[in-house]
Specification:
Shape: elongated
Number of strands: 0
Distance between the termini: 17 Å
Order of helices and strands: HH
Largest sheet: none
Oligomer: single chain
Number of domains: 1
Radius of gyration: 17 Å
Number of helices: 2
Strand content: under 5%
């Protein structure tokens, strides 16, 4: 699953018991967009309000899990 959108809503929602999801690779949002926003905020605009402009960038909730007996594992799994 790959998303380059800065504000991504939930990609997977499941509200049932006994659910198993395997084999997912989740990537996003695109770090280049954040870097360009940082550049516009602090390099191009030499303005005291640049800090305020920078924090107007929408954020994304990476992975949100509400569950009992949850196992998250993998060779490259960083939480």
């Amino acid at each position: 699953i790959n998303s380059t959108v800065l504000s991504t809503s939930s990609l997977i929602i499941h509200n049932e018991d006994h659910v198993r999801i395997t084999g997912l690779v989740i990537q996003g949002p695109d770090p280049a967009v954040h870097e360009s926003h940082h550049t516009r905020s602090f390099t191009l605009y030499k303005d005291p309000l640049a800090h305020t402009f920078y924090y107007n960038l929408q954020t994304t909730d990476g992975i949100v899990v509400y569950a009992d007996n949850t196992e998250i594992a993998g060779e490259y799994c960083y939480i």
